[in-house]
Amino acid sequence: MNAMNPYQSLAHKALAAAKTTAALALITWPSAGSASEIADALVKLTADTVVAREIMLKEIGIREPLILNAADARREIFLPVPVDIPISDARLQFDARYLRSDGDRTTLVLSLDGSPVSSRAFTQPEGNAGLSIDVDGSPRNGGFVRLGAVWSSIASERACGSERMNGNILEIAPTTRLLYRYNGASIRDLATAWTALPLSVTIAVSGQTISRDVYDAAWRLGVALERAGKRAIVKALPSVGDEVDLATIVVPDALRTIPAFGNLVGTGRRKITDPAEIGALLALGAAPVQAQVAVIDEEFRRKISAALAALDRQIDAAAPDANAALAKWRSEAMNLADEPLESGAVQLLRLAGQPLIAVAPDAGATAAGLFDDHWRRIAVSKAVVIRSANDASGKASAVSLTRLGGAATSFDVLERGDWSAAFDLGALASDGRVPTRIELDVSAAPGASTTPPVASVFLNDSLLGARRLDADGQPERIALGIPSYVLKPANVLRVSFQRQTAGEPCRETPQAYPVAVLPTSRLLLEKAPAANDFAGVMPRLAGAAALIVPDTWLANAPATLATAIRLADATGLSPVRASFMASSDSRAVKPAMPFLALNVPIDGVPARTSVEGDRLIIAGRDSTHLLDVAGLDGLGALSVVSAGDHAGLLYKTIGDRLPTLEMPFVLTGGDVAVLGPRGVLAQIDTRDPFGNRPAGIDRRSWLQKLWGNVAWSGSAAAASLFVLIVLRARHVRRRRARGDHG
Questions:
Q1: CA–CA separation, 679 and 608 (whole Å)
Q2: Fewest CB atoms less than 10 Å from the CB: which of 210, 228, 247, 294?
Q3: Dihedral of the CA atoms 559, 565, 566, 570 (nearest 10)?
């Protein structure tokens, strides 16, 4: 074998290196044809603006089956859709079952928006009543698809036979759902974008650690969403080092030759190693970057711009011909990175091709006010700058029910009909006053039966009172007191009218007769009761109050914001009027107004609850403990406290983990509550653990209590004086009688 000189050896090595480089190039760089495919794939991503939605009954608060078992039982359900936006591929999946032990004629009629779409008779003892129904895609200016169900059971062919039955039952399952799609590009203003939000809304922030202003805006937006019946979820933009679930990501074949996209193909979880991969997630509209609301600060825009720039470089190197398609995608599907938001601005932008309500960090309070029912409909533009957005409640001593959304209208009632109005306590208690009395003006037409109709008034399903109506077509007033313990941050007032049908159905067919709730109906407001329990503190939080959190919560924003939002919503804290404070040290805080303090020590507060790691102690009235238990984790303790002249609520985490407050919860009576994933696990009044104090006693002021004592003392003195006068009169008569006999 001939020896190879050094120059030949170097030549062979160079040739081998060139072959290797060429082979790698063939693997890495696509051909001209694949470059065209990349451009086409980007064009398809730009054009894909379809948004899919699924609305289940359990997501709108109907978590238990609906039971219809009367002779003529009716139920209407309102399923939200975007206002004035056409929908497509809409389908109602009606899940139900029936029992039919009483037999005879049993029918189910379903209607959509008042138009019958299905009518079926059932003959078996039991069975499946489920059905899939196509839904008309026409725009709905009310923002709802109205599902009606009429379950009729008639036990006799004769009109005079008894129609009262209990054995024929229809059960509508909470899994009943509406599925539809709509074009996200048709959302052209903020008001419509708000109505198009899903039931679970994602609020995007720049990262796990955020600034004070971003945190402040995020909790306010979250509470506003919760009060609107949504579920707020806070999500941080992905960063290098975060993990993503590849199973939920679909990558087009043409884009897989680009490293950022190719790295997202597979199953399981993968750690992000390059900003370009974040850009690829944005291009695909993948789940880790999907959001409907975002607080846009400079850090948010910087991360988006860096991710898109890194992706640009990879696409430019792989397919220069795709630059135009990429630029078009950025301008139409990712315009939030173009320029910063103005101070106080709320703007409709695009994130990954979908509509996004973008809020400036200093616009949280005003945005929450704008999206309240009172002002939301005026946001008919893509961008607004809000200087102020408050309700006009002021210091009114009375509020009309029509102001609260209750329509003053007439409706026909055969046997039973309901009228309702919903209102937030914060809309009424801005100056520390709460509803204490209702003056309900109603009228009812006379019916065929001589039995007068009955009007029953409920607040949050608690019966306030009832009255038999004269039913002469003239206005009648029902005046009732409102106990403080029935009030909640979100309230529903319901008036139920019941009529007795005619007693001789053989001679006449029962007919419905009109009733009305008149526009003069109103709520009367008075100063909130003493702040000794949750019912007394929550009205004060609806006005000028403070949310106080430790500054360490800003370094774990998504998790701590979830807790802050749930607690602020449940306690009635106003997202518009409240102030925000992030305590920067471990020293006790001295609030200057009513407050909700989360894991922050408060100066001069006697502790009703004490938390030491995983140990919870609840103090009683004396030196004993009502509860002393260790080994707890993932729970929270909320208690009523007073710091100087200001009442508030103090929250403490029990254990190492924040509680996952999955379900909305309501605080009723008591001054201490233990919270967990299912809401309130335990609630107690440490001043009166056995509930011996009469309801409503705390509503009286000290002057009223003093006057009550004086009045009682005066009555007792008057009674004593009367007894003395009677005894004196008897004594005088006896003396006179003895004198006459003498």
A1: 20
A2: 247
A3: 160
Candidates 3, 72, 70, 47; CA nearest to 510 is: 72
Token code pair at residue 50? 């379809």
Do the beta carbons of residue 135 and residue 91 sit within 8 Å? yes
Q: Indicate the burial class of 9 (C-beta count within 10 angstroms; 0-12, 13-18, 19 or more).
A: exposed
Write phi, then psi, for 562 (nearest 5 degrees). Answer: -60, -45
From the list 234, 210, 111, 171, the residue with the least C-alpha distance to 580 is: 210
**Alpha-carbon gap, residue 101 to 122, rounded angstroms:** 11
Determine the 3-state secondary structure of 610 from DSSP.
strand
Q: Rounded to 5 degrees, what are φ and ψ at 149?
A: -130, 125
Please tell me the distance from the alpha carbon of residue 651 to that of residue 672, in angstroms, as a whole number: 10
∠ CA(610), CA(615), CA(616), 5° rounding? Answer: 45
CA 177 to chain centre: 19
The Cα 153–Cα 498 span in angstroms is 20
Place of tokens 């209750």: 406
Amino acid making up residue 483: P
* Single-letter code of the amino acid located at 450: T
Q: What residue type is 380 in one-letter code?
A: V
Q: With 50 as the cut, is the pLDDT of residue 685 above it?
A: yes
CA 185 to chain centre: 26
Closest CA relative to residue 47, chosen from 253, 194, 252: 252
Phi, psi of 183 (to 5 degrees): -85, 115
Largest Cα separation within the chain, whole Å, is 171
pLDDT tens digits, 355-382: 999 999 999 999 998 888 778 888 888 8
At 463, the amino acid letter reads L
Please tell me the least confidently modeled range out of 124-133, 224-233, 583-592, 687-696. 687-696
Q: Which of 372, 113, 119 is nearest to 225 (CA)?
A: 372
Reduced to 3 states (helix: H, G, I; strand: E, B; else coil), residue 371 is: coil
At 704, phi and psi to the nearest 5? -65, -40
Distances (CA, A) of 349 to 190, 471, 702: 10, 55, 55
159 is written with which tokens?
A: 């009109």
Q: Is 269 helix (H, G, I), strand (E, B) or coil?
A: strand
Specify the 3-state DSSP secondary structure of 169.
strand
How many residues can be counted in the chain? 742
Structure tokens at 213: 């202003």
The pair of three-digit structure tokens given for residue 270, joined into one six-digit string: 């993968």
What are the angstrom distances between the C-alpha of 208 and each of 242, 263, 482, 586?
11, 24, 44, 22
> Which residues does 729 contact at the CB level (< 8 Å), separation at least 6?
none
- Say which amino acid occupies 30: P
Cα(473)–Cα(728) distance, integer angstroms? 58
Which amino acid type is present at position 220?
A: R
SS3 (DSSP) at 559: helix
Is 473 strand, coil or helix?
Answer: coil
Task: Give just the sign of the alpha carbon dihedral 328, 201, 392, 406.
Answer: positive
71: left (phi over 0), alpha (psi -120 to 50) or beta: alpha
Q: How far apart are CA 258 and CA 262, in angstroms?
A: 6
Bridge partners, residue 648, by sequence: 595, 641
Q: Is 549 exposed, middle or buried (0-12, 13-18, 19+ CB in 10 A)?
A: buried
| Whether 319 contacts 34, CB under 8 Å | yes
Answer for the pair 467, 478: CB distance below 8 angstroms, yes or no.
Answer: yes
Q: Which helix (H) or strand (E) holds 476?
A: strand 476-481
Using DSSP, state whether 649 is helix, strand or coil. strand
Q: What does the pLDDT look like over 278-302, one tens digit per residue?
A: 999 999 989 899 999 999 999 999 9
> Contact, 172 vs 69, CB < 8 A?
no
